[in-house]
Amino acid sequence: MIETSQLTKHYGNLTAVDHISFKAQPGQVLGFLGPNGAGKSTTMKMIAGFLAPSSGSARVCGFDVETQPLEAKRVLGYLPEGAPSYGEMTPRVFLEFVADLRGLTGDLRRRRLDDVIGRLHLDKVLSQPIDTLSKGFKRRVGLAQAILHDPPALILDEPTDGLDPNQKHEVRALINAMARDKIIVISTHILEEVHAVCNRAVIIAAGKLLADATPAELEARSRYHGAVSLTAANAEQARAALAAVADIESIEIDPQDQRLTAFPRAGKAIFAAVSEVVKAQGIAVSELQLEAGRLDEVFRTITQPHVKEARA
Amino acid sequence: MNPVLTVFKRELRSYFATPVAYVFIEIFLLLSGSFTFYLGGFYQRGQADLEPFFSFHPWLYLFLVPAVAMRLWAEERKTGTIELLLTLPITMWQAVLGKFLAAWAFVGVALALTFPIWITVNYLGDPDNGVIVTSYIGSFLMAGAFLAIGACISATTRNQVIAFILTVVVCFLLLLAGYPLVLDFFRSFAPQAVVDAISGLSFLTHFDAISKGVIDLRDLIYFALTIGFWLYANAIVIDLRKAD
Questions:
Q1: Stretch (H or E) spanning B20
Q2: Which of A70, A78, A87 is the closest to B79 by Cβ?
Q3: Beta strands in chain B (DSSP E)
């Protein structure tokens, strides 16, 4: 379990992290969302035992990061922001160095090294200095280092930042494969990632925890939740036809692509009614979709007031 | 394996992974040799000892040791690996000690490679080898003290050039702490007891004593305390300035 309680960090007058409390259980992939400078990395650095909290506490698998730092560090795998590693070393020597500091010896050491090298496809670059590797490989070396000791808890700070779509997909697959029995906390500002890997999302802005829910619950907060979008040959004709549906609160047409979105009245489902109208009136529709909700819109709605407040 | 040893090995290897190590060692050997023969008048003195060789060590170290020390922590800060290192299950002390000892061992290698001059002087005459051994010990201890200062200053910044220059200045002041240049400044406002204390901090005084062949416990304690003090400060600086 990763648990923080009223975790706070001040830098002079600035409060980077403001009384953040949450718990993550095994099997959970917790996504840390927030605009840049929201305090995501600072929170992770405190849990990883790099920065000391100004007040509050953090525990990893029951070990307090301040009073039992070594025990907490032993059960935690940590990928710092930007995946730093020693550039003059080769991935093999670097991973062996980490294995030594993690206290891995003998057969177990060999098996773990083989396992992470295989999982992250590092075999081709094992004896090339890390400095000469591409960004994607550097990130994978960082990930390999974090999971080398097969830790029960993992903190990954922007694990897919700077990767190309294929690499992103691979890293997400890796996280999903490990998710079953581990506690994983990842930070990201890519919202699609939340869908791809997280089963719980925490939104932070200006150091405050603003939301803690599943991605589906967050989407349900969107005004798009339950809305129906369609692309019609004649948008105005479709709007006029849909105006008759009683449960529709309002209709908007995207000025750019002429896509029409009908918003339901609170608590009403309108998809059946809309498709009925489209069929009955013979409106030519090239696409019709029920919206689950838009995370980016929820994200903006939740964080924007706080971002402005922080700037003022 | 002991974490100190693991950090030590990695750090020492990193010196030899780049040309830095070879450049350093060559320059050190070249300068120490030419100072001995040209400035020190090794032959002209007509004495079989290594006094002209060791007497230039403080001045060589003044510029070369800060160059070894400057990267110790500044580079970790700059590349962000400090965060990696300190979130692995090791204590701050193990990290500080492992890195310092690696740098010290590296300078030790350079110092050991000056052995041909020892052979030369034995070939040419009949020197007091006991004095030479204590001189080597004194020189090595002094290098350690310079390094500890450099390690601490390196921890305050992510810029290696700043670390280098500040270390040179601090080492220069400590070298000359027993000389009028430094003491006159303090005499202008500090009581005599303070001035005496400062003059007692001089590297040169303690190094001269050891290189005369006298191993006085006080000189050894002096260097041990200096190293200990600066490494302690090193750990504190890192702890305080981790966030930067």
A1: helix B20-34
A2: A87
A3: none
* Cβ–Cβ < 8 Å for B94, B4: yes
- Answer for the pair B141, B59: CB distance below 8 angstroms, yes or no: no
- Domains of chain B by residue range: 2-241
pTM summary value = 0.88
Whether residue A310 is predicted with pLDDT greater than 60 in this model: the reply is no
Looking at the partner chain, which of A74, A78, A100 has a beta carbon nearest the beta carbon of B1? A100
Q: Which residues of A touch B10 (CB under 8 A)?
A: 86, 89, 97
The DSSP letter of residue B128 is -
Buried b (16+ CB within 10 A) or exposed e, B132-148: bebbbbbbbbbbbbbbb
Chain A residue numbers with beta carbons less than 8 Å from the beta carbon of B97 are: none
How many other CB atoms are found less than 10 A from the CB of residue A262? Answer: 26
Is the CB of residue A280 less than 8 Å away from at least one CB of chain B?
A: no
Where do we find the tokens 């005599």?
B192
Q: What is the DSSP letter of B144?
A: H
Cβ(A86)–Cβ(B10) below 8 Å = yes
Q: Is there a contact between A4 and A56 (Cβ–Cβ < 8 Å)? A: yes
Binary contact (A78, B87; C-beta < 8 A): yes
Q: What is the pLDDT of residues A24-52, one digit of tens each?
A: 988 899 999 888 888 899 999 999 999 99
List pLDDT tens digits, range A187-227. 987 888 888 889 899 999 888 898 898 888 888 888 888 88
pLDDT score of B1 more than 70? no
Q: What are phi and psi of A70, to 5 degrees?
A: -65, -45
Q: Lowest mean pLDDT: which of A48-52, B125-129, B139-143?
A: B125-129
| Facing residue for A88 by CB, picked from B17, B83, B89 | B17
Residue pair A281/A241 in contact by the 8 Å Cβ criterion = yes
